[in-house]
Amino acid sequence: MYRQMKTPQLGRSVLVIMDGAPGYLEAFRVSISRIPEISRKFFTLFCCCPTYYWEHGGADSPGVLQEIEAVWAAKESESDHARHCLDQARAILHNAGVPDSHILSKISAKKDSLMAATMSELGQSQYSGVIISRYRHDIINRLHRKGITDVFRSLPKVEVLTLAPRN
Length: 167
Fold this sequence. Notes:
alpha/beta; 17% strand
Protein backbone atom coordinates (compact mmCIF):
# COMPACT_ATOMS: atom_id res chain seq x y z
CA MET A 1 0.00 0.00 0.00
CA TYR A 2 1.23 3.46 -0.87
CA ARG A 3 0.79 6.29 1.60
CA GLN A 4 0.34 9.74 0.19
CA MET A 5 -1.78 11.91 2.40
CA LYS A 6 -2.47 14.79 0.03
CA THR A 7 -1.08 15.38 -3.40
CA PRO A 8 0.65 18.76 -3.42
CA GLN A 9 -0.35 21.32 -6.02
CA LEU A 10 2.57 20.76 -8.36
CA GLY A 11 1.72 23.61 -10.66
CA ARG A 12 2.02 23.52 -14.41
CA SER A 13 5.68 22.54 -14.97
CA VAL A 14 6.87 19.42 -13.13
CA LEU A 15 10.37 17.94 -12.91
CA VAL A 16 10.31 14.17 -12.36
CA ILE A 17 13.58 12.87 -10.88
CA MET A 18 13.84 9.31 -12.17
CA ASP A 19 15.03 6.58 -9.85
CA GLY A 20 16.07 3.01 -10.53
CA ALA A 21 14.85 1.80 -7.13
CA PRO A 22 12.55 -1.22 -7.23
CA GLY A 23 8.94 -0.14 -7.23
CA TYR A 24 9.66 3.44 -8.32
CA LEU A 25 7.67 3.29 -11.55
CA GLU A 26 4.69 1.67 -9.81
CA ALA A 27 4.72 4.37 -7.12
CA PHE A 28 4.99 6.96 -9.91
CA ARG A 29 2.00 5.44 -11.72
CA VAL A 30 -0.14 5.44 -8.55
CA SER A 31 0.80 9.02 -7.65
CA ILE A 32 0.24 10.31 -11.18
CA SER A 33 -3.31 8.95 -11.10
CA ARG A 34 -4.07 11.31 -8.18
CA ILE A 35 -2.89 14.53 -9.82
CA PRO A 36 -5.79 16.74 -10.91
CA GLU A 37 -5.85 18.23 -14.42
CA ILE A 38 -2.85 16.15 -15.39
CA SER A 39 -3.40 16.66 -19.12
CA ARG A 40 -2.74 20.40 -18.68
CA LYS A 41 0.66 19.95 -17.02
CA PHE A 42 4.11 19.75 -18.59
CA PHE A 43 6.54 17.08 -17.36
CA THR A 44 10.30 16.80 -17.67
CA LEU A 45 11.56 13.29 -16.96
CA PHE A 46 15.11 13.62 -15.65
CA CYS A 47 17.91 11.04 -15.26
CA CYS A 48 21.53 11.49 -14.26
CA CYS A 49 24.21 9.28 -15.83
CA PRO A 50 27.54 10.80 -14.80
CA THR A 51 30.42 10.63 -17.23
CA TYR A 52 33.08 8.06 -16.41
CA TYR A 53 36.43 9.75 -16.07
CA TRP A 54 39.50 7.60 -16.28
CA GLU A 55 42.78 7.62 -18.07
CA HIS A 56 45.63 5.32 -18.86
CA GLY A 57 49.22 5.79 -19.88
CA GLY A 58 48.55 5.11 -23.54
CA ALA A 59 49.72 1.52 -23.61
CA ASP A 60 47.82 -0.76 -25.93
CA SER A 61 48.26 -3.91 -23.89
CA PRO A 62 45.43 -6.45 -23.89
CA GLY A 63 44.64 -5.63 -20.23
CA VAL A 64 44.21 -1.93 -20.99
CA LEU A 65 42.07 -2.65 -24.04
CA GLN A 66 39.84 -4.94 -21.94
CA GLU A 67 39.51 -2.21 -19.32
CA ILE A 68 38.52 0.30 -22.02
CA GLU A 69 35.87 -2.10 -23.32
CA ALA A 70 34.54 -2.79 -19.81
CA VAL A 71 34.18 0.93 -19.04
CA TRP A 72 32.47 1.51 -22.37
CA ALA A 73 30.07 -1.42 -21.81
CA ALA A 74 29.18 -0.17 -18.31
CA LYS A 75 28.46 3.31 -19.64
CA GLU A 76 26.32 1.96 -22.48
CA SER A 77 24.41 -0.33 -20.09
CA GLU A 78 23.68 2.56 -17.72
CA SER A 79 22.53 4.77 -20.60
CA ASP A 80 20.30 2.00 -21.97
CA HIS A 81 18.74 1.49 -18.52
CA ALA A 82 18.12 5.25 -18.17
CA ARG A 83 16.46 5.44 -21.59
CA HIS A 84 14.32 2.39 -20.75
CA CYS A 85 13.16 3.99 -17.47
CA LEU A 86 12.39 7.25 -19.26
CA ASP A 87 10.37 5.38 -21.89
CA GLN A 88 8.37 3.58 -19.20
CA ALA A 89 7.67 6.83 -17.31
CA ARG A 90 6.63 8.48 -20.58
CA ALA A 91 4.17 5.62 -21.21
CA ILE A 92 2.74 6.00 -17.69
CA LEU A 93 2.17 9.73 -18.26
CA HIS A 94 0.70 9.11 -21.70
CA ASN A 95 -1.70 6.48 -20.30
CA ALA A 96 -2.76 8.99 -17.61
CA GLY A 97 -3.80 11.45 -20.32
CA VAL A 98 -0.70 13.62 -20.72
CA PRO A 99 -0.12 14.50 -24.40
CA ASP A 100 3.27 13.52 -25.82
CA SER A 101 3.90 17.20 -26.54
CA HIS A 102 3.80 17.86 -22.77
CA ILE A 103 6.53 15.32 -21.94
CA LEU A 104 10.25 16.04 -22.25
CA SER A 105 13.02 13.57 -21.39
CA LYS A 106 16.50 14.64 -20.28
CA ILE A 107 19.61 12.71 -19.35
CA SER A 108 22.35 14.65 -17.61
CA ALA A 109 25.91 13.46 -18.05
CA LYS A 110 27.54 16.74 -17.06
CA LYS A 111 27.28 16.46 -13.26
CA ASP A 112 28.85 13.84 -11.05
CA SER A 113 25.86 13.34 -8.75
CA LEU A 114 22.09 13.37 -8.92
CA MET A 115 22.04 16.22 -6.37
CA ALA A 116 24.28 18.43 -8.51
CA ALA A 117 22.40 17.53 -11.70
CA THR A 118 19.02 18.21 -10.08
CA MET A 119 20.03 21.57 -8.64
CA SER A 120 21.53 22.58 -11.98
CA GLU A 121 18.33 21.62 -13.83
CA LEU A 122 16.17 23.49 -11.32
CA GLY A 123 18.36 26.56 -11.77
CA GLN A 124 18.09 26.47 -15.58
CA SER A 125 14.33 26.07 -15.96
CA GLN A 126 11.19 27.33 -14.27
CA TYR A 127 9.64 24.35 -12.50
CA SER A 128 6.71 24.66 -10.11
CA GLY A 129 6.86 21.08 -8.82
CA VAL A 130 9.20 18.14 -8.33
CA ILE A 131 8.36 14.45 -8.10
CA ILE A 132 11.06 12.42 -6.36
CA SER A 133 11.61 9.18 -4.47
CA ARG A 134 11.53 9.49 -0.68
CA TYR A 135 14.94 7.77 -0.63
CA ARG A 136 16.58 10.92 -2.01
CA HIS A 137 16.73 12.60 1.42
CA ASP A 138 19.56 14.95 0.45
CA ILE A 139 17.62 16.47 -2.45
CA ILE A 140 14.30 16.57 -0.57
CA ASN A 141 15.92 18.32 2.40
CA ARG A 142 17.50 20.89 0.12
CA LEU A 143 14.20 21.56 -1.67
CA HIS A 144 12.50 22.03 1.70
CA ARG A 145 15.41 24.25 2.84
CA LYS A 146 16.15 22.10 5.88
CA GLY A 147 19.94 22.42 5.84
CA ILE A 148 21.80 25.17 7.67
CA THR A 149 23.51 26.37 4.50
CA ASP A 150 20.28 26.24 2.49
CA VAL A 151 19.35 29.58 4.06
CA PHE A 152 22.14 31.11 1.97
CA ARG A 153 21.50 29.20 -1.25
CA SER A 154 19.41 30.46 -4.10
CA LEU A 155 16.78 27.75 -4.42
CA PRO A 156 13.62 27.84 -6.48
CA LYS A 157 10.35 27.50 -4.58
CA VAL A 158 8.74 24.27 -5.73
CA GLU A 159 6.12 21.91 -4.41
CA VAL A 160 7.53 18.44 -3.76
CA LEU A 161 5.70 15.14 -4.19
CA THR A 162 7.67 12.30 -2.60
CA LEU A 163 7.06 8.80 -3.84
CA ALA A 164 7.25 5.81 -1.53
CA PRO A 165 8.32 2.90 -3.72
CA ARG A 166 8.10 -0.59 -2.29
CA ASN A 167 11.28 -2.63 -2.14
